[in-house]
Design goal:
single chain, mainly alpha, Rossmann fold, Tyrosyl-Transfer RNA Synthetase, 2 domains, three-stranded parallel sheet, 5 strands, about 55% helix, binds tryptophan
Length: about 325
């Protein structure tokens, strides 16, 4: 059985792209694999959130994960800062992580270019913390997007370096896991590219009906096709791509036929699209709200997750300490 691990940054809410992308696949795979899903709140400290934001964001993401179908019983769903073994492994790995290789990391170079006033050590050692997240459970499959592949490569480097240094075969090499054909890429509403928080083109699972209607009606479209069977420009294709996942096949076909016949009215299509998105998201939004107002339940979930995560993590730390040479008298 594979040990699958995924971390999510605790900044911000989930959008349709997160849901139809990785999250839906997590929900499916949690029963066939040993899955660890955690909220990376230590990582979020590199940008210095206020205490209220830090806590509020963690709570939001936890509630949204559960509302989308992650099962705290079937998988291990936890908050990074509840597992003190992670920072301990991070410290130990940092002793063999070199300044040069950390500085060469693309995401670090990007960060210092964008935020030259906040080049902190946490940012530099972000890849070591991520390696600790993964190696603490000896995970072998890590679902990550393209932007995280270099971090995974560094995790393999750190794991192999540890094994070589101490002449052990302890840490497995984690590999990136992409869902292949199953991964649905949801485009944004701004006419190009994928849906993303920083792009400002997203529909959030927690958006209410009115907000969704407004966003969809404002989505980029064009004056419409001028000849039958015309190829769809990107902005229009994007609307159809979203429609494919949220609407019924009949609805999709109806508007596709209208497009082909040059009879499409984007206003009608957007109205329908908005209602179908609302249909998909409103049960989730209701669950998110119910979970957010139930602190007892959230406390129980966090506690269960921390217990399960620490059971695995403490075994790793015990082994690692012995391998390194920490001994009791
Ligand atoms: N760095 C990841 C991101 O920005 C989040 C993350 C932290 C992560 N630790 C991880 C992802 C471990 C996978 C495994 O999306």
């Amino acid at each position: 059985m594979d040990i699958v691990l995924s971390g999510i940054r605790s900044t911000g809410k989930l959008h349709l792209g997160n849901y139809f992308g990785a999250l839906q696949n997590f929900v499916k795979m949690q029963h066939e694999n040993q899955c660890y899903f955690f909220i990376a709140d230590y990582h979020s400290l590199t940008t210095h959130p206020t205490p209220e934001d830090l806590h509020g964001n963690v709570k939001q993401v936890l509630a949204e994960y559960i509302a989308c179908g992650l099962d705290p019983e079937a998988s291990t769903l936890y908050i990074q800062s509840d597992v003190p073994e992670i920072p301990e492994l991070y410290l130990l790995l940092n002793m063999n992580a070199y300044k040069g290789e950390l500085e060469r990391c693309t995401s670090f170079k990007e960060k210092i270019r964008k935020h030259p006033d906040n080049v902190n050590a946490g940012l530099l050692t972000y890849p070591t913390l991520m390696a600790a997240d993964i190696l603490i459970h000896k995970a072998n499959k890590v679902p990550v997007g393209k932007d995280q592949e270099q971090h995974l490569e560094m995790t393999r480097t750190f794991a192999n370096r540890f094994n070589r240094l101490y002449n052990v075969d302890y840490f497995p090499e984690p590999v990136a896991y992409n869902f292949g054909k199953e991964l649905v890429k949801i485009p944004g509403l701004d006419g190009s590219g994928k849906m993303g928080k920083s792009e400002g083109n997203a529909i959030y699972l927690s958006d209410d009906a009115e907000t969704i209607r407004k966003k969809v009606m404002k989505a980029v479209s064009d004056a419409g096709p001028t000849q039958p069977n015309q190829e769809k420009p990107e902005a229009i294709q994007n609307l159809f791509t979203i429609m494919k996942v949220v609407s019924s096949p009949d609805t999709y076909q109806f508007f596709d036929d209208k497009y082909t016949a040059c009879e499409i009215r984007y206003g009608d299509m957007k109205k329908q699209l908005a209602e179908d998105i609302i249909n998909v998201t409103s049960p989730m939004r209701e669950r998110i709200e119910a979970i957010l107002s139930d602190d007892d339940y959230l406390r129980k979930v966090a506690k269960l997750g921390a217990e399960k995560a620490r059971a695995s993590a403490s075994q790793t730390i015990k082994d690692v300490r012995r391998i390194i040479g920490f001994r009791e008298f």
